[in-house]
Amino acid sequence: EEAFYMTDRVMTVSFHKFGDYFPGTGDVGDIGVGKGKYYSLNFPLNDGIDDEMHREVFVPVISKVMEWYRPGAVVLQCGADSLSGDRLGSFNLSTKGHGACVDFFLKQNVPLILLGG
Fold first, then answer.
1. 3-state per-residue secondary structure call for 90-117
2. What CA–CA distance (Å, rounded) separates 55 from 50?
3. How confident is the model at residue 22 (pLDDT cuts 50, 70, 90)?
4. Distance from the CA of 72 to the CA of which of 48, 96, 106, 112 falls in 20 to 30 A?
């Protein structure tokens, strides 16, 4: 996110744990600066979010981002700390929930680079 904070050439969207949590970035007010203003979107989530709750947030937010920004490619990072049972995170996503995010982007007809983490 920080690498692209001052440019409109890349839009970053982050769904992550709400509150004081490593790395301590990603406040909802972190929206970019200069040419990058409004090209950074942070969506903090509460503990315990499951596949269905995540889908209810992810699909409308990312649909609007795709419509507005119209990216030439997408880099999607599916962090393992959001999976149920991970000791660092406190979410309850399953691999099926992560897969639903991947499926969503595959239907967008844009090149996709998929990363773990």
1. CCEECHHHHHHHHHHHHCCCCCEEEEEC
2. 9
3. low
4. 96
d(CA 57, CA 59): 6
Q: Which amino acid is at 57?
A: V
Q: What is the pTM of this model?
A: 0.87
> CB pairs under 8 A, 24+ apart, for 27-33?
30/1, 30/5, 32/4, 32/5, 32/6, 33/5, 33/6
| Distance spanning both ends of the chain, measured CA to CA | 15
Single-letter amino acid code for the residue at 16: H
Count Cβ atoms below 10 Å from residue 5 Cβ, excluding itself. 17
Name the helix (H) or strand (E) containing 16: strand 12-17
- 52-89 in b/e form (b: 16+ CB < 10 A) is ebbeeebeeebeebbeeeeeeebebebbebbbeeeeeb
Question: Whole-angstrom Cα distance, residue 88 to residue 25?
Answer: 16
